[in-house]
Amino acid sequence: MTETRSINLAVIAGDGIGPEIVSQAERVLDRVAELDGFSIEKTPYSLGAAHWLETGETLSEETLAALAQHDAILFGAVGADPRSAEVPSGLIEREVLLKLRFAFDHFINLRPSRLFPGAVSPLSNPGDIDFVVVREGTEGPYAGNGGVLRKGTPAEIATEVSLNTAHGIERLVRYAFELANSRQRKKLTLVHKTNVLVNAGQLYSRYFNEIAAEYPEVETDYCHIDAATIYLTTDPSRFDVIVTDNLFGDILTDQAGAVTGGIGYAACGNINASREFPSMFEPVHGSAPDIAGQNVANPTATILAAAMLLRHLGREDSAARIERAVEKDLAAHPGATRSTDQVASDILE
Amino acid sequence: MTETRSINLAVIAGDGIGPEIVSQAERVLDRVAELDGFSIEKTPYSLGAAHWLETGETLSEETLAALAQHDAILFGAVGADPRSAEVPSGLIEREVLLKLRFAFDHFINLRPSRLFPGAVSPLSNPGDIDFVVVREGTEGPYAGNGGVLRKGTPAEIATEVSLNTAHGIERLVRYAFELANSRQRKKLTLVHKTNVLVNAGQLYSRYFNEIAAEYPEVETDYCHIDAATIYLTTDPSRFDVIVTDNLFGDILTDQAGAVTGGIGYAACGNINASREFPSMFEPVHGSAPDIAGQNVANPTATILAAAMLLRHLGREDSAARIERAVEKDLAAHPGATRSTDQVASDILE
Ligand SMILES: CC(C)[C@H](C(=O)O)[C@@H](O)C(=O)O
Ligand SMILES: CC(C)[C@H](C(=O)O)[C@@H](O)C(=O)O
Q1: Could you tell me how far CA A306 lies from the centroid of its own chain?
Q2: Which of A211, A235, A260 is the endpoint of a domain?
Q3: Residues of A labelled as active-site residues
Q4: Is-contact B306 B25, C-beta < 8 A?
Q5: Which amino acids bring their CB within 6 angstroms of ligand 2?
Q6: Candidates B94, B95, B106, B250: which one to mutate for ligand 2, based on the most atoms within 8 Å of Cβ?
């Protein structure tokens, strides 16, 4: 991908701590653009719980069409609002965040996990943690399939259907092999629950084994999701790249955030790797209503998401510049509690 | 439940380390029976990978009918065999272990997690961990539902259907409230993914909220499965009783095993709480083919499973006696590596 002189960026700050962390990431983006000689044109979009409470609208077709025109989307967090008792649980997450992932075919949900120098892991022996989870983003149990019969009665049944397609899994697994092959350790682990979820499990295994033959230099292994949570506790540095389904990836990356010192450092790329739609970059954490508006939220994950965004748009040098600055900042302030804007200022230095 | 003078026990030692750990648990059971003045009649059943390789049979209707006559089942582990390349992946787990859970309607999968004195947690600040997971055992994504279309082609789709019933969830949640109410902290946490798996999530939430009203002394809260893995890493002592679905319970209890110093201490009761069928007690860990037959497997989880078995049969004193002995043994040998039979001998002392 060639570098663009100007980036046409959509910004969805969202609810809760969203606006404060996103504005710090914007400061960092602006500074890097200045240093590296390109420009960023930003268009804010008002979406989330507050927007829904005010307009009754979650995400309209018009907004989707407008968002589709951008090079990429920077996303804060949605869901929380002081009036959130009025917001049906999960509605905003599904109708905004998941809808964007599905509408823009973000089939790669990319989540790096690193124990940064200066970050404090709750494990006594964390080792050198540096892996990436390649989570499926557009199918599995997130498909919104399933239903309810005899609702509210003692005879109710409720189903959830996990949909898994060769189409979705092949492109996912291929991306993961490509990524593993580009890394120093060249190791790829498939995480699933093939002994119980046999249908989906066999489809994952089939593509995993088939594509492995095309990447003889990539070392492969498999572990069940339950065993993976054990390894993440006892030996997280055994992982290099993990490929897994939508739900298992959700679970593993929150745990990975915790073992690397908190999800305050975990960034996520919702990537349409075929580049038909804009990709979207966000922190893994949520809108944290309890600390919103107090200038205490850690903007690091969002700043790292901004770096992923630049990398996706071909600006590897600018991305690396941000990551180096974050690393230096964390090493210089180990375990420190700082204000939201102070962290960004320190990173900018 | 009144005490029985004689226990009619079925013993399924299974594969891998199964036989060696089960025989140590039998030694402990025999000794406790002698001390507490009751008898145990044991009937061994040959089931597992080795049995399948030799007979082509996983679990016949005749064997099921015979097992149904026992007061309880002590189960080791199945799946591993030196010839296991010949065993289709997951076949034995599904056709023996899961089949028993479903056939005997083991709707409560009870998994206590404790950081025993002397056990070494990989967390630097584990706190005082002592919680119980009440995992659903007979439905959810384990129902074996779902299927495959256009198998082996680039147009394949594979589904997994999670089946959730009011029948299954009400009895589960009721059991969990009863258990929480009987404990000192009286706290119950529902773990699910209600923001994404809305159909099943609402059914769980409905019974959780309804039954909560009957237990005003039980403090309740909710957390998503992804957040639960964070809490298990950063603050596991926040949990007292957790109630959750079959798959989430599988994942959480392996992670819980790891944070409490290894699944060598984690026991599991597959309980038919309505007592229509025998309940089954097993270690959470598997058949560990890599260390089988070397007298190095830790029998503690199986011995604790035997204690749960006695408690289920009304022998609370004998169960507590075993648990006290295990505690003392662990405290006396912190972090020690001992042979399988030595651990049991030490516990017997
Ligand atoms: C908010 C929720 C729908 C979302 C998910 O489950 O994917 C979040 O947990 C995440 O990991 O991005
Ligand atoms: C062996 C497997 C089918 C089983 C499960 O998934 O329930 C195991 O992991 C367990 O936790 O008992």
Answers
A1: 12
A2: A260
A3: 142, 193, 226, 250, 254
A4: yes
A5: A 195-196, 226; B 93, 97-98, 250, 284
A6: B250
Whether residue A137 is found in the same domain as residue A228:
yes
Give yes or no: residues B68 and B175 share one domain: no
Residue whose Cα lies nearest atom 2 of ligand 2: it is B93
Cα dihedral sign for A117, A120, A123, A125?
positive
| Rounded-to-integer distance, Cα B186 and Cα B219, Å | 6
- Is the pTM for the entire model greater than 0.90? yes
Residue B248 lies in a domain: yes
Q: Which residues of B touch A202 (CB under 8 A)?
A: 148, 158
User: Ligand 2: distance of its center to the CA of B262 in Å?
Assistant: 16
Measured between beta carbons, the chain B residues lying within 8 angstroms of A226 are: 250-251, 253-255
Q: Which tens digit of pLDDT belongs to each residue from B175-213? A: 999 999 999 999 999 999 999 999 999 999 999 999 999
CATH number at residue A26: 3.40.718.10
Q: What is the pLDDT of residues A169-216, one digit of tens each?
A: 999 999 999 999 999 999 999 999 999 999 999 999 999 999 999 999
CA distance B218 to B174: 12
Where in the sequence is the domain holding B321, given as residue range(s)? 1-107+262-349
Which tokens in the block code for residue A217? Answer: 């230099």
Residues A244, A272 share a domain: no
All residues of chain A having their beta carbon less than 8 Å from the beta carbon of residue B203 are 148, 156, 158
Three-class SS state of A283: strand
B114 in a domain, yes or no?
Answer: no
